Amino acid sequence: MSTTTTPELVLHVLPPSHPCKTVEAALAFKGLAYERVELQAGQHNAAVEELYGEGTRTVPGLTIDGEPVHGSTAILQRLEQLAPEPALYPEPIAAAVREAELWGDTVLQDLGRRMPWGALHFRPEAMGSFGGAGPLDPAGTDFAIAYVRASWKYHRISAVVLAQDLAGLPPKLDHIDALAAEGIVNGAQPTAADLQIGATLRVLLTLGDLRPLLEGRPAEQVARRWFPDYAGEVPAGAFPAGWVPAREA
Ligand SMILES: N[C@@H](CCC(=O)N[C@@H](CS)C(=O)NCC(=O)O)C(=O)O
Is the minimum distance from the CB of 118 to ligand 1 under 6 angstroms? Predict the structure, then answer.
């Protein structure tokens, strides 16, 4: 008689991280039970390095019966080996899904960090909304101003970078709509590309200034279908006038 044992999965996250939400959505899609461990911000780099090896700093990381797998795209591939069905890289589109997923990781994902931190510079009292709270009081806003300043430094955000990110958003959204038209994302079931790209787009939807660029498009559906709930709200009017490109008809 053969017996199969379920591997022990432990996911290490920081609560607001969108690539962590990508992995959580993949685990849920595959019906895999896991333990979720929230690392403490500030101490997470050392914890990650100890668990996942020299040079690693970021979340998500997943251990599978103690085997460390680091980074959202590596984790989704490993989950596919572990539980092939339902597929995140379905044939015959598996290669195209992988390409789109990697684009989502290497090109789009950073916008899910720079855009909210960028907007919060102009509306620091909104920082509490990302933890599910309302607008911060003056003392909280003082804290947020210092925190956002440190985040700009860490993520190398400047006004020039932010304005360039905003100007460059429409062609990226067009690319996602094209992926949807090709059936690489936004099909009946989520692919790895949906979960990678959708998590970043869902962060962008927390910014009132960006919602008009997304509303009613496949790109918005990719975000809202797989990530219906997402904390955070920076009201429209945060970015300086003229920085957010107008939506083309
Ligand atoms: N592309 C990587 C990036 C992960 C990443 O940058 N995660 C952020 C959270 S969204 C992080 O851990 N930041 C903490 C830090 O940089 O110290 C992935 O998808 O796994």
Answer: no
Centroid of chain to Cα 194: 11
Query: What is the fold, at CATH topology level, of the domain defined by 9-82?
Result: Glutaredoxin (3.40.30)
Q: Give pLDDT tens digits for 211-221.
A: 999 999 999 99
**The domains spanning 9-82 and 94-226 adopt the same CATH topology:** no
User: How far is the first Cα of the chain from the last one, in angstroms, to the nearest whole number?
Assistant: 64
Distance 176 CA to ligand 1 centre (A): 22
CB of 71 within 6 A of ligand 1: the answer is: yes
**What pTM does this model have?**
0.96
Per-domain residue ranges of the chain: 9-82, 94-226
Say if domain 94-226 classifies as CATH 1.10.8.
Answer: no
- Centre of ligand 1 from the C-alpha of residue 59, in Å: 5
pLDDT at 4: 64
User: Whose CA is closest to 119, among 246, 248, 244, 247?
Assistant: 244
